[in-house]
Design goal:
Blueprint: H1 12-23, H2 27-39, H3 44-64, H4 70-89, E1 99-104, H5 112-123, E2 127-132, H6 137-147, E3 151-155, H7 162-174, E4 179-182, E5 200-202, H8 205-213, H9 232-239, H10 241-255, H11 264-287, H12 290-306, H13 311-324, H14 329-341
Parallel strand pairs: 1-2, 1-3, 3-4, 4-5
């Protein structure tokens, strides 16, 4: 009688196998694979971080490269969530530490990273209130008053949510609950997290577990650092967002003739891109960080080129927004920096 070979995360082919399963929507196969790994002695933490989280990163890259559709990306994420649930069902630990509330900021829908964090903290002995995606600030604060957690873990994956993240952090601290922030929306190395008043930042679930396992909370940040964010230029951009977008769309049609042949779907996508330009500009102004906008322009240019849209289209779009803000020197300087990213 032959004995089945033990599965190991050290086998690079296994990661491709799991990617294939989630990409094909094979829930049974994905769940079977992770449970086999657990049976073969692989720790739940490694399965979650190396296999599920690692695969999800690749899924996002495939979408950005236009190799996967949005629908396929969403379907794959759903399978990853089912695989994660299977791992969680096999891994229960009695709470021995404090209580933590985990939430995505208002408007943030990338929930899988926070779900992985929730399971990692449960394995480390925390009592976890997992609140999921898109948690409105007032609802989060109501939960804190009702349950009294020791800490809030707040996720922000997209920089356009930073003003809302700041509001949530400020409200949590006013309620007497310290905050650990996470997610790439807080910038490289989490450099915006302290600026927004967070008590700590973690690059991922493993680092968050380690930080919370130490003395908590750490040294409190100076509340004056985050007391006065946003200025009149930020306020103008936010208040005039609809007009900035609609005017830019009108001028874009005139300045970029190829757009006249767009179908409705392409026009809708272009309107979304214009909205992103305005929203990332607002966030850059809010925290006085030009790189928020330039990083967005660089990433968007890559995504659009993968879809056959030439850089000139993005350049013209940026110029149409800049022309409307000629009386606002900081905003125009930020957009000009974004245009320079595109080169000549």
């Amino acid at each position: 009688m032959s004995v089945a070979a033990r599965r190991s995360l050290d086998d690079p082919g296994l990661h491709d196998e799991f990617l294939g399963l989630v990409g094909e929507g094979d829930e049974f196969g994905a769940v079977e694979l992770v449970t086999t790994l657990l049976d073969d002695g692989v720790t739940p933490q490694r399965v979650m971080m190396e296999l599920i989280a690692g695969t999800q990163t690749r899924v996002g890259e495939l979408w950005a490269a236009n190799e996967w559709t949005v629908a396929r990306e969403h379907a794959a994420t759903a399978i990853s969530e089912r695989a994660l649930a299977a791992v969680a069902a096999r891994s229960t630990v009695r709470p021995t530490r404090g209580r933590v509330a985990i939430a995505c900021v208002d408007g943030e829908w990338h929930a899988l990273p926070t779900r992985i964090l929730a399971e990692m903290l449960r394995l480390d002995g925390w009592r976890v209130d997992y609140l999921g995606a898109n948690v409105p600030g007032p609802h989060l604060i109501t939960h804190l008053h009702q349950t009294g957690p020791d800490v809030v873990a707040l996720s922000c994956m997209i920089a356009t949510r930073l003003p809302r993240a700041h509001a949530a952090i400020t409200a949590c601290k006013a309620a007497g609950v310290p905050v650990i922030a996470g997610g790439r929306g807080f910038g490289p190395g989490g450099r915006y997290a302290q600026h927004l008043g967070a008590d700590a930042w973690a690059a991922g679930a493993e680092e968050a577990v380690q930080r919370l396992a130490r003395h908590w909370p750490p040294h409190q940040p100076d509340p004056q650092l985050s007391a006065y964010l946003g200025d009149e230029e930020y306020t103008y951009v936010v208040r005039n967002r609809p007009e900035l977008i609609s005017t830019a769309m009108h001028r874009l049609t005139e300045a970029y003739p190829a757009m006249r042949d767009y179908n409705q779907r392409q026009r809708d996508s272009t309107a979304e891109d214009m909205a992103h330009i305005v929203d990332f500009l607002a966030s850059a102004l809010y925290v006085s960080e030009t790189s928020i906008f330039t990083d967005f322009v660089e990433w968007t240019n890559g995504v659009l080129q993968a879809r056959g849209v030439p850089p000139v289209a993005l350049r013209v779009g940026l110029e149409t927004v800049r022309a409307q803000l000629r009386d606002y020197p900081t905003a125009t300087a930020v957009i000009s920096a974004g245009i320079r990213v595109l080169g000549e």
